[in-house]
Design a protein that fits this description.
Nucleotidyltransferase, domain 5, five-stranded mixed β-sheet, 2 domains
């Protein structure tokens, strides 16, 4: 079977990862990583992305069929970046600029990651699953027949930024935002350190405060995942992102809280599994998005 080469690019707030992916195997042949430094502004980040794409194109052993890019922002159905919370690409012709190198598609990073897991990772055996990514942010999407559902406008991914506001019988108001409590930066901030990894290390060493922070963060995330399960009734939940591979008290609390808050006895037993592609998920998933758009649909 003929091999086709695609470039996958994953743009996050910390780093830009890009690589050459061959299809139909999904093998990542070569990978490059650069810091994002989004504070420089959107055009500077876009220049780095274009330079990486051209560099990989020269390094490939055959012509590049297409380019897929996933970014940690909202992306509409036409590939336009419609938010600028981290990478200031709102209004910039990102997809058009990449298309000057090879046919290109821009997608939100969570949907790109989910597509990679659906095709080559932990979602391969499921027709319907919920993909949740835990890291700097917390996002999710439904995958049906291998295709992440984008919603009517491309915005069906925001899970943890809306506050839950409760008012009790005395009029006392409480408000909590999940990302401000249980994301990677939030976990670090609650412990008074710069990196969430330090909290996991402290918990592993037996620090009771670190254990409590990770336990409560896992509980909070599990509660939201259970809400998704109650609404969408998926076959399985696949969890990725930087925190998705964490174990110990965090994972145990997440799984237990998810099952505790699922309403249906039958749904409660669904598989809750870690993503399989690890740090390469964004690159492979972005490349797969482009490959399916430009190669398989034209075959």
């Amino acid at each position: 079977m003929d091999q086709r080469f695609s470039i996958g690019i994953d743009v996050g707030g910390t780093k830009i990862a890009a690589g050459i992916v061959t299809f139909p195997s999904g093998e990542l042949l070569e990978k490059r990583v650069r810091p994002t430094h989004p504070e420089r502004g959107g055009p500077a980040v876009l220049d780095d992305v274009l330079a990486l794409a051209r560099e990989l194109g020269r390094a490939a052993q055959q012509p590049i069929a297409c380019i897929g890019l996933g970014v940690c922002e909202l992306v509409d159905l036409c590939g336009n970046v419609t938010s600028g919370f981290t990478v200031a690409w709102q209004g910039l012709p990102v997809q058009a600029a990449l298309s000057e190198i090879a046919p290109a598609v821009v997608e939100s990073d969570v949907r790109a990651h989910a597509r990679g897991e659906a095709r080559f990772g932990a979602g391969r055996n499921y027709r319907d699953f919920v993909f949740v990514t835990l890291g700097t942010g917390i996002s999710a999407c439904l995958v049906h027949d291998g295709v992440p559902y984008p919603g009517a406008r491309g915005n069906a991914l925001v899970l943890a930024t809306a506050p839950l506001t409760l008012v009790d019988e005395t009029g006392r108001r409480t408000q909590q935002v999940l990302e401000e409590f249980a994301s990677g930066p939030a976990i670090a901030r609650r412990f008074g350190v710069d990196r969430a990894e330090a909290v996991f290390e402290a918990a592993q060493a037996g620090d009771p405060r670190a254990v409590t922070i990770l336990h409560t963060a896992g509980q909070a995330i599990g509660n939201s995942i259970a809400f998704l399960c109650n609404v969408l009734d998926p076959e399985a939940v696949v969890i990725g992102g930087g925190l998705g591979g964490a174990g110990g008290v965090f994972w145990d609390a997440l799984v237990a809280a998810t099952r505790e808050h699922i309403w249906s006895d039958e749904t409660r037993a669904l598989p809750i599994v870690r993503a399989m592609l690890g740090n390469d998920a964004g690159v492979i998933g972005a490349a797969a998005t482009a490959h399916e758009r430009f190669t398989e649909t034209q075959a």
